[in-house]
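Why predict the complex rather than its parts? Because the way molecules touch one another can change local conformation, and only a joint prediction can capture that. The input here totals 223 residues.
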Amino acid sequence: EDQVTQSPEALRLQEGESSSLNCSYTVSGLRGLFWYRQDPGKGPEFLFTLYSAGEEKEKERLKATLTKKESFLHITAPKPEDSATYLCAVRTHNNNDMRFGAGTRLTVKP
Amino acid sequence: DADVTQTPRNRITKTGKRIMLECSQTKGHDRMYWYRQDPGLGLQLIYYSFDVKDINKGEISDGYSVSRQAQAKFSLSLESAIPNQTALYFCATSDYRDTDTQYFGPGTRLTVL
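Output of the joint prediction:
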């Protein structure tokens, strides 16, 4: 069965303290891996799509990377406004479902 | 105005009642989705629709039904609500030219007593 596991569940950082969020996956035939950001009381907002191992995408302080078993979301010098829950999802070649992980709740203190 | 809207935003109901959650979009997308989100769990797909005549079950469709009234409207019904259907419900859309990017609505918080 396809599985997506995110770690840690929660992460507290000081402003400027860089770190990484992990998304490990077990799927048959990865078609794409996706990162979303979700603010409290709002729907998820698309950040990145990664399709193949070795691929990297960047947006402001965020950089997403992909290997054959996991993806990392690197946050460089985070600011309080980066506080949110970050969701990882995968889609396989076998179906149209997007399978989500439970998310990592990031808090950045000033 | 928001591209994907959901009504109501909050709803409290009782066990056994019929509930309808509505989703409208102005993005012109052909594909629409309904998800539920529970604390500590990922978003789970309930139903999805690739056009007005196409409806498909997701991983947790039992106890739910949907209606695609028009390209822009996709409704989710709970025929007889039960307490374990208490959750956040999200509608999402995507375009056939970029099916991997989904745009989510603000969500409906449903409580079944």
